[in-house]
Amino acid sequence: MHAIETFPRQDNQASLQLNADGSLRHLLTLEGLDRALLVDLLDDSERFLSPMGEIPVRSQALAGRTIANLFFEPSTRTRASFDLAGKRLGADVLNLDVNTSSRKKGESILDMIYTLQAMHVDIMVVRDASAGVPAYIARHVNDHVSILNAGESDVSHPTQGLLDLLTIRQHKGRFDGLVVAIVGDIVHSRVARSAAHGLHTLGVGELRLISPPALAPDPGEMPFAMIMDNLHDGLRDADVVMALRIQRERIGNLDGIPGIDEYFANYGISHARMKAARSDAIVMHPGPMNRGIEIESALADSPASVITQQVTNGVAVRMAVLERVGKSMEGH
Ligand code: CP
Fold first, then answer.
1. Which of 125, 127, 160 to probe ligand 1 with, by most ligand atoms within 8 A of CB?
2. Which of 164, 203, 201, 156 is nearest to 282 (CA)?
3. Distance between CA 136 and CA 199 in Å, rounded?
4. How far is residue 27's CA from residue 14's CA, in Å, rounded to a whole number?
5. Closest atom of ligand 1 to CA, residue 314
6. What is the side-by-side strand order in the sheet with 66-71?
7. Residue 127, class by beta-carbon neighbours within 10 Å (0-12 exposed, 13-18 middle, 19+ buried)?
8. Ligand 1 centroid – CA 287 distance (Å)
9. What is the DSSP string of 241-280?
10. pTM attached to this predicted model
11. Coil, strand, or helix at residue 43?
C-alpha cells in the first residue's frame, strides 16, 4: 500500500516563507516578497558572478551545513546549479537519487523529510509534480531547517524567476517602462507565473502573456498582465521576449492544442517574428528547449539570445538564496 498524502494547493506560502523579522527562511514563491528583498537578492547574485574561464566565486558561508537536493521530477539546470551553488558555498551536498529512494516503496514525504532531518540536513531543495508540496514540507520541518522550491507543478519556480529578473536587469538596467512578452504554454507554466509575479513587484511597464487560447491562464489570476493570442501584436515593440516549452507532461487532454507545425507557424519565436519587437530586444528561454517548436534554432543561437547567460545566472542566484537562508539559521 502506498501512503496517500494530500497537499493544499494554495497554502499562504507568502507569509510562511519569512521569519518574524522579515528575513527569508524558506523560498517557496516570489508572490508576496517585497521589492526590497527581490532587489537585495539580485544584488547579492551579482557578487557570485565571474568571467567565464576564471575560477568561479567561492565562499565558506555554508561551511558545516548540509543541503539535500530532492528532485522528484526531471531536471538538468536547476539540479546541477543547486548542487554547484551549495558546493561553492562550502556546504555538504546530498543529491538523493529519487529512483532508489524509499519513496518508491511507499514511504511518505514526511517520513523521508524526518529521516533527512535526523541526519542534520539543514536545507532541502525540492522539486515535485504536485502543487503544494514545498509549503507542506515547510510546515513540518524543525525550526532551523529551510525549504527551497526548485519547481512546483505549474505553480511556482522562484529561483528561475529570480534568474530571469537578473538577466533582464543586466541587459536593460531597469524594469519600469519595459515591455516583456512571455510566449507559449502559459497556463501550465510555473516559470511564467514566477517571472510574472517578480516583474510585477519590480514595476515592469507592460507584461504580455501570449498563447493559443487553450493555453491561456484564467484572466483573473494575474490581473496586472495582458492576455493575448496574436503573436505579432504581442511582440510589437517588446524589449524582452521569453519563449516557453509546451508542458506536455502537465496536459491531460490535447484538444485545442495546435500540432507542432501549426504551433511553430503561429507561436514559434523566429528571426522573422522578432521584426515586430524592438531592434535591441533580448530572447530568453528557461530550458529545456524544443528547437523548431517554440523557438527557431538559429534565433536561440543568435546574438539576441541570452539563454546561456540565464543558465550562468542560475548558479549565482541559487548561491545568493542559499547564503541568505543560511544567515537566518545562525541564531539556531
Ligand atoms: N528551467 C528549468 O527548470 O530547467 P530544468 O528542468 O532543467 O531544471
1. 160
2. 164
3. 26
4. 9
5. 1
6. 92-95, 66-71, 123-128, 146-152
7. buried
8. 6
9. EEE----GGG-S--TTPPPHHHHHHHH-B-HHHHTTS-TT
10. 0.95
11. helix
Q: What DSSP character marks residue 151?
A: E
Ligand 1 atom closest to 150 (CA) = 3
Residue 163: which of 46, 57, 80 has the closest Cα?
A: 46
List the grid coordinates of 265.
507557424
Distance, in Å, from the CA atom of 211 to the CA atom of 264, rounded to the nearest integer, reads 12
Residue with cell 524582452: 240
Ligand 1 pocket by C-beta < 6 Å: which residues? 75-78, 151, 160, 286-288
How high is the pLDDT of residue 12? 64
**What are the DSSP calls for 289-329, one per residue?**
--BTTTB-HHHHTSTTB-HHHHHHHHHHHHHHHHHHHHHHT
pLDDT, averaged in runs of 10, over the chain (332 residues): 63 81 95 97 98 97 98 95 98 88 82 96 96 95 96 97 99 98 97 98 98 95 97 98 87 74 95 98 97 96 98 98 93 68
Which run of H or of E encompasses 126?
A: strand 123-128
Burial of 223 (0-12, 13-18, 19+ CB in 10 A): exposed
